[in-house]
User: What shape does this take?
Amino acid sequence: MRRWEGRYGGGGRNKMAVAGKGAGAALVKPIFSRNLGEAKRRVRELYRAWYREVPNTVHLYQLDITVKQGRNKVREMFMKNAHVTDPRVIDMLVIKGKMELQETIHVWKQRTHIMRYFHETETPQPKDFLSKFYAGHNP
Assistant: This one.
């Protein structure tokens, strides 16, 4: 046995899927959560962390929004992915959410990065010529 096999999963073999065994049966290694219930628990923990961090973020970044608006945006961002049921996908979204939270807490983001989340809900700019003309935009 090579010295890296025990620690890193062994000799380059792919444990993610088993080729040639059964009719389409594949073993998929979980990222963190073993089942959907555990993944949902991780989502709730992340949601609570974001919910608790909103007042600090509004104060620290001197945002022109209220705490309630910030919490509503957090809820909206979480509800955007409420349809996801695969635990692996949920785990990846939780990992990304934790990274965003860490960047926000440690002030690795700037004010404009935070405010971009609030500009997503604005009405889109007109695309066709007449709509641009009526709105007063140059083509």
Q: What stands out?
A: Confidence is low (pLDDT under 50) at residues 14-20. Residues 84 and 97 are 15 Å apart (CA to CA). The radius of gyration is 22 Å.
